[in-house]
């Protein structure tokens, strides 16, 4: 691998983040509607700028992974240091919000997957996520000791969060990829397939965002609502689309945003867009914001 390959991985990661941000209608989450309505408290343009600001950090993570060629504690700590710098840049690019307009879990998910893809060029999603787990298993001595909202929720409710997902080889990223394949095979549009993939994650993930905002009852509404859409046939059916609209209205009214699910969908879109063993993969496209 070369510097140009590192930059290509970084571009693919940024495109995946933007594609996830622009996917519409996402229940309770910022999307193209938020250019006019601030229902989610996040401006889509800020999300796009934040994603683009991460490109140098992702390229640096890919280069860092290339040097040792194997998962190690030193690599995990270098990725953590790069990620903390990238998070600061992301927040400034998105308007200076303390937590950044992109969920910080998206940086964790994508950083691990970019590094794993750099370590295993041409590998399939299963091998990439397994390599990401080997990186995540190492502790990061440079990580801040202060508790975060996510760590507090994890300690309170036993939810693994996106960090736990990494240590488990990203099971929900792989479920999202399976959902994408099924929906495409059934004739869904790309937007409908991606929405079904997001709902598949939402239906089972112990998402710390809803837990932090509304506790177990809030998370239960997310899971049950997502399951209802899928049971109705998914976003491609009239019944599923109606259930999706009802879930979106419910979560927006309550201020519940399943951002962890969105971060894992972005990881799935990144892997979905990578070539495997030299074969072309579906392009990760993001629609222009109007």
UniProtKB/TrEMBL annotation:
Q: What is its EC number?
A: 2.4.2.52
Q: What's the catalysed reaction?
A: 3'-dephospho-CoA + ATP = 2'-(5''-triphospho-alpha-D-ribosyl)-3'-dephospho-CoA + adenine
Q: What molecular function does GO assign, one term? A: triphosphoribosyl-dephospho-CoA synthase activity
Q: Which domain of life is it from?
A: Bacteria
Q: Where is the composition biased (Basic and acidic residues)?
A: 134-143
- Provide the alphabetized UniProt keywords: ATP-binding, Nucleotide-binding, Transferase
Q: Which InterPro entries match?
A: CitG
Q: Which Pfam families match?
A: CitG
Region described as Disordered: spans on this chain: 134-164
What is one GO biological process annotated to this record? prosthetic group biosynthetic process
Question: Which PANTHER family is this protein grouped with?
Answer: 2-(5''-TRIPHOSPHORIBOSYL)-3'-DEPHOSPHOCOENZYME-A SYNTHASE, TRIPHOSPHORIBOSYL-DEPHOSPHO-COA SYNTHASE
**Name the UniProt record assigns to this protein:** triphosphoribosyl-dephospho-CoA synthase
Q: Which organism is it from?
A: Streptomyces violaceusniger (strain Tu 4113)
């Amino acid at each position: 691998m070369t510097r140009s390959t590192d930059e290509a991985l970084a571009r693919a990661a940024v495109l995946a983040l933007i594609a996830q941000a622009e996917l519409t209608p996402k229940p309770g989450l910022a999307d193209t509607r938020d250019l006019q309505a601030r229902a989610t408290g996040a401006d889509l343009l800020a999300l796009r700028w934040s994603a683009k600001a991460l490109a140098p950090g992702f390229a640096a993570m890919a280069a860092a992974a290339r040097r040792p060629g194997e998962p190690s504690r030193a690599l995990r700590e270098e990725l953590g240091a790069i990620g903390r710098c990238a998070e600061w840049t992301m927040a400034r690019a998105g308007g200076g919000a303390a937590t950044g307009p992109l969920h910080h879990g998206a940086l964790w998910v994508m950083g691990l997957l970019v590094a794993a893809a750099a370590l295993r060029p041409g590998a399939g999603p299963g091998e990439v996520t397994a390599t990401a787990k080997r990186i995540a298993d190492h502790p990061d001595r440079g990580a801040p000791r202060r508790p975060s909202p996510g760590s507090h929720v994890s300690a309170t409710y036993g939810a693994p969060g996106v960090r736990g997902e990494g240590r488990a080889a990203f099971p929900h990223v792989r479920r999202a990829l399976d959902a994408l394949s099924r929906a495409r095979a059934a004739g869904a549009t790309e937007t409908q397939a991606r929405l079904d993939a997001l709902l598949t994650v939402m239906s089972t993930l112990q998402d710390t965002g809803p837990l932090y905002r509304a506790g177990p009852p809030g998370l239960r509404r997310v899971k049950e609502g997502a399951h209802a859409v899928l049971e109705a046939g998914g976003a491609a059916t009239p019944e599923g689309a109606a259930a999706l609209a009802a879930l979106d209205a419910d979560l927006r009214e309550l201020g519940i945003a399943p951002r962890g699910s969105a971060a894992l969908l972005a990881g799935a879109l990144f892997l979905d867009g990578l070539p495997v063993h030299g074969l072309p993969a579906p392009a990760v496209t993001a629609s222009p914001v109007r």
